[in-house]
Amino acid sequence: MPKLSGKCLCGAVSFSGDADVKMVMNCHCDDCRAATGSVYGTNVFIAEADVAVTGELKVYTHKSDSGTDMEKHFCPNCGSLMFGKNSGRPGMLTVRAGVIDQKDLVKPAANVFMDSRVLSTPIDANLKGFPRMPG
Question: Domain count of the chain?
């Protein structure tokens, strides 16, 4: 049984592997809010080489505020946002928490881009908070 698995809303795209979670963060940046349609996105960081993806993905590429290339990978059928990549973190893949089967692995350690958060969003005071993405 894989350590990590999941699928999009319609099931056309799935992933699985023995990936270890490197980090989990709630991101309050404008991009994550727009891409998820929510007040923040929860990103689970893993090594890209540790998972296999089945199904076709569409990719949207844009520049981050720091100038790196950002990719959003989503199902072309149902639109579920599955993964993200950042050219500033080669080999790292962010899996969107909502598509992961193992919900117990989703344990955010921090909130990032707090400077752009929706002010009415409840924030867990036990998590570290950063105005932007820490280096």
Answer: 1
